[in-house]
Amino acid sequence: xxxxxxxxxxxxxxxxxxxxxxxxxxxxxxxxxxxxxxxxxxxxxxxxxxxxxxxxxxxxxxxxxxxxxxxxxxxxxxxxxxxxxxxxxxxxxxxxxxxxxxxxxxxxxxxxxxxxxxxxxxxxxxxxxxxxxxxxxxxxxxxxxxxxxxxxxxxxxxxxxxxxxxxxxxxxxxxxxxxxxxxxxxxxxxxxxxxxxxxx
Length: 200
Prior knowledge:
Helix content is 38%, strand content 19%. The protein is α/β, with parallel strands linked by helices. 38% of the residues are buried.
């Protein structure tokens, strides 16, 4: 699986701390389920020698890089004081271990925009990208679309990605086939399992 990577998107305190704005927007049972599935995925990837890569949003205290936006995330992030300071920290077991790479981006929706992610993945020989994280219907989907456009074979780990409503999840499941595959963590674990040795 040397050509594959598991991309963990925004497993940061802004999503995972119980008092954070975004954490409270995800239904509690959904959050528990996503964390359990994502933990299974990252543990399997590390045990199986699959490259684990982290992506997150890290913004300056004055949000100057976002400008004076009227709409969208560029307007929302400063208003709610998100992803600056310690709120941007990655959270175990999703924080980097050893030399796992972290790609920071300045409030863009796709992990590839404004970051070194594509350059890093290509220099590691990655052609197959598994994606998990937050939010499924926003940054995870945007990253999957962008990865497809860049030529990666994309697999979105749906049960390891969180959203706010069942309608949002259904939408992603409905459209994801245009950009890659939508699979479960257990399917991911099966795909990365080493081939059995041939008996002689």
